[in-house]
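queue> pop job 88
queue> type: inverse folding (structure -> sequence)
queue> payload:
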């Protein structure tokens, strides 16, 4: 993907995209840890109701993804969208790929009438925080979590 490329196409992922999705998630994790994600797991994720993945393509190649889930929410009496991962290939960063993915998601959220979009960002990831704020997301809550080791 070259610096002048503005031909970013965003589309829904299909079962044929599992390897591209696995590759991007593995690339994301490689910066700090490893991910146990496999093509088989991605197939199950895509088949699960409420889980969705948008893919960004440039010149016919997958260069980024945005995964999200939709769930019913009691407080807003409407559906909420949780952005799970936004990942770009190293050579596609700072080229508008993430913005194209978010614009497409926001368009779908508005069309569906969902109540909100949320995302979790590690507190030391200043670049991601700036990115999401630039797109209108604001500090609304503190997200707490507890990890459990998955049995082998």
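queue> result:
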């Amino acid at each position: 993907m070259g610096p002048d490329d503005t031909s970013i196409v965003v589309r829904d992922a299909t079962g044929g995209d599992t390897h591209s999705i696995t590759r991007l998630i593995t690339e994301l994790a490689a910066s700090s840890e490893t991910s146990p994600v496999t093509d088989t797991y991605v197939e199950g994720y895509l088949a699960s109701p409420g889980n969705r993945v948008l893919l960004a393509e440039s010149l016919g190649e997958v260069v980024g993804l945005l995964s999200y889930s939709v769930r019913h929410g009691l407080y807003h009496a409407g559906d909420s969208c949780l952005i799970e991962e936004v990942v770009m290939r190293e050579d596609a960063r700072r080229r508008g790929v993430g913005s194209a993915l978010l614009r497409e998601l926001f368009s779908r959220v508005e069309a569906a009438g969902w109540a909100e979009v949320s995302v979790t960002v590690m507190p030391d990831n200043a670049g991601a925080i700036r990115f999401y704020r630039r797109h209108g997301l604001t500090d609304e809550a503190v997200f707490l979590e507890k990890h459990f080791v998955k049995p082998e």
